[in-house]
Amino acid sequence: MPAPARRRELGRGERVLPGLWRLRLPLPWPGVPHCNAWAVAAGDGVVLFDCGMDEPGSFGHLERAMDQVNLRPELVRHVVCTHAHSDHYGQAGPVIDRSGAQLWLHPDWGPMRLAVTDPDQATGRRVEIALTSGVPEEPLRAYHESHKGMGWGVARLVEPDHDLVNGVTIDTDLGTWYVHETPGHAPSHVVLHQPERRLLVSGDHLLGRVSLYFDYGWSPDPVGEFLRSLDVVERLDVRLVLSGHGRTFTDVQGHIDANRALVQERLDATEAVLREHGPITAFAAVPLVFGGDITAANASWWLSEALCFLRHLEVTGRAVREGGAGTDGPEAWSLA
Ligand SMILES: [Zn+2]
Ligand SMILES: [Zn+2]
Which of 10, 141, 250, 328 is the most buried (most CB within 10 A)? Predict the structure, then answer.
């Protein structure tokens, strides 16, 4: 009997607290079935923290989720994006077109700007990183071709009206939310803290399920930045986390500790691979670090994560690389 086609979810809205709603929006990604937008009452409208990805039918899911809690996109006064990934920023354009809302975003959103304004250059940049990392040319060319012309999940480029940086505040009926910069997952990542109610809009920095992802190639040391950002959140007084994916959760310290432990485990594994197999390309190291085969689904995620671990070992004086740019071959990594 053939496996039943995966049933796509619908947008769903639910009240978390009076004046605070979770809008759960479906995603087309395997293993990441949905993302969250959070609506918070603010005067005669709402502030929308994140807004979901743009794809066919996606705005209908947002409207449906809002309708279930008696809200409408027209009520959005501010779109506040925790970071410039498509599932958090993609529908900013349509929401703003409908409502006239203002957009708030961290200034380091360059990767998204490039992806939207010059998708071929953005793809070319990824291909170059892959070749330097030792990905063989043929599967890479096929991958590149199959992804050509595919959208980036963003309806249109929207420039922020306001920069989301340390010290900036957003006022709502639930009180004032304070911005804390938390780069690592993405260079543009921030969290928003509401101290009296001890709430945290955490984006993808802290998720209910411990799952690492880092943008590679846009900042000096994403893993180091992520670890420092965990320290930032650890200092905040938080009772309830509203994360970019999955349900709300309360055990903040447990999640911070679990993220630190997983980073340490992967760094140790990367170091062990260099010790045993170095010099080795990042591409060859991936299955050894993660203990699984590279597939089309995990390839780019795992490769950028492995590159970020290697880079962190390099920055902290534990690894070196040779080859790469200006030479014939890919970069090879070994222990320092
Ligand atoms: Zn993200
Ligand atoms: Zn996300």
Answer: 10
Q: Which ligand is nearest to the CA of 301?
A: 1
Tokens of 275: 């010790």
Q: For residue 84, which ligand has an atom nearest its CA?
A: 1
pLDDT of residue 62: 98
Supply the pTM of this predicted model: 0.94
| 328 CA distance to ligand 2 middle (Å) | 37
pLDDT digits (tens, 9 = 90+) for 263-279: 999 999 999 999 999 99
Compute the distance from residue 34 Cα to the ligand 2 centre, in Å.
9
pLDDT given for residue 29 in this prediction? 86
pLDDT < 70 regions, the chain = 1-8, 149-150
Cis peptide before 279 (omega within 30 of 0): yes
- Residue keyed to tokens 């050509």: 148
Nearest to 81 by CA among 18, 151, 168, 175: 168
Distance 214 CA to ligand 2 centre (A): 11
Model pLDDT, residue 8: 67
Alpha carbon distance 209, 85 (integer Å): 18
What is the amino acid identity at position 113? R
* Ligand number, closest to the Cα atom of 243: 2
* Secondary element (H or E) of residue 36: strand 32-42
Tell me whether residue 269 is exposed, middle or buried, using C-beta atoms within 10 angstroms of its C-beta: 0 to 12, 13 to 18, 19 or more: middle
Angle between helices 282-290 and 299-315 (to 10 degrees): 100
Question: What's the pLDDT score for residue 6?
Answer: 54
CA–centroid distance, 84 to ligand 2, in Å, is 9
316 CA → ligand 1 middle, Å: 25
CB atoms within 10 A of CB 124: 12
Alpha helices, DSSP H only, in the chain? 58-68, 86-89, 92-99, 110-117, 119-132, 137-147, 222-234, 252-277, 282-290, 299-315
* 19 Cα–ligand 2 center, Å: 23
Edge-to-edge strand list for the sheet holding 190-194: 169-172, 175-181, 190-194, 199-203, 240-243
Point out the ligand nearest to the CA of residue 87: 2
